[in-house]
Amino acid sequence: MVSLKNDRFLRALLRKPVDRTPIWMMRQAGRYLPEYRETRRLAGSFLDLCKNTELACEVTMQPLRRYSMDAAILFSDILTVPDAMGLGLYFEEGEGPRFRKSINNESDVRNLKSIKAEDDLSYVMNAVRAIRKELNGDIPLIGFSGSPWTLATYMVEGGSSKDFAKVKTMAYSQPELMHSLLGILADAVADYLGAQISAGAQAVQIFDTWGGSLSSQGYKDFSLAYMKRIIEQLSVTLEGSSVPVILFTKGGGQWLPFIAETGAHAIGIDWTTDIKNARSQVGDLVALQGNMDPAILFSSPKRIREEVANILEGFGKGTGHVFNLGHGITPGVDPDNVSAFVDAVQELSPKYHL
User: Does the annotation mark 303 as catalytic?
Assistant: First the structure.
């Protein structure tokens, strides 16, 4: 294990003993912080912020100056890979991410640019190196990517979607084409995460944001199989080194036993899944990460503390739990309520690790 002043996050992911439950938040560097909003204004746009090494490092560090988090997460976007493949990522105000080109047929898949992450996504690796230097061995750094299925949804739909009609039509009416696209993406993501690890990421998370939109068999065929393919490639690349991999499928609570068999070290669960039930399903196969509803942060410090207590009690005694929200923190949350959240986890969790 890498020598760190605080390694409880990595220890928990590997189900090793810890003194208390570690905590970090998805989107912990984000719009709920006034200093983030100011830095983004200086950058000019979200993508410019992602691609500016100094500013990407700055916003990664901002929440760590306010809160005693047990991990930092790289500031970037899940759609960097398809952008590097030539689809032209941009952000439309009020509509989220969009692509100038979309994937509609076999020719579009065939014409995707083959990428090497260290070269084509060098700005991400530069940010990883800068953040690791700035962290100075205090806490570990998490790298990440979108899952192949999640990336494919944006690439086929051309951006965000409510019903996923185009991508599901392709998956179910042209499965060979969809599998071809997903295979290309899985290999690119494995290379991308491997490059992040080489640059200094000490754990990685695969964000399967839209896996829960699929049927049970569709999830196994079009999402889970390709995340497993990524983990298998990373295992070969890392040659046995313990860099933990977290899989997070939003809406994936019904598939926990299958996710636990992928080789991932931890499963992220959203707030719709009961953590006690989740632990009973996966046993000691994997760690669990989660899973407070982000909306609880709009309530009072007392209510936040009660919810933290409920989740800690639900998981119970022993290691293998990383406290997190069940999805990214919502813009508009009072930063003081995040303090109440972090303090509650740190104050209430030690008794579960005696």
Answer: no
